[in-house]
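Long-time lurker. I teach an intro course on protein structure, and each term I like to show students one example going from raw sequence to a predicted 3D structure in token notation. This year I'd like something fresh instead of my usual example. Would anyone be willing to generate the tokens for the chain below so I can use it in lecture? Attribution to the forum is fine with me.
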Amino acid sequence: MRGNPNIRLRLRRRTCAGVAREISDPTELQQAREAICETVHLIDYGECRLHLRGRPSRTKIKDLHRYWFDTGIPLVIELAE
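-- Reply from a regular --
Happy to contribute to a lecture. Here you go:
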């Protein structure tokens, strides 16, 4: 991504072009953190079972996502129209 930020994403049966970038703006970073770390979806329970021991819970899922967000490199992909 750093070498060539131009990417192609496959979303269901559609392929979209876009540009990936690291999030550097503090406000945008906080919005991304809240969207990723504070929201729990049904599929997240399966993800939690794969990565953590014991019964999945909302708390475990949020903690796992916070860990990934805080130790990873948050990205945004701006899709072309």
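Some talking points for your students: Residues 32 and 68 are 13 Å apart (CA to CA). The chain has a mean pLDDT of 94.
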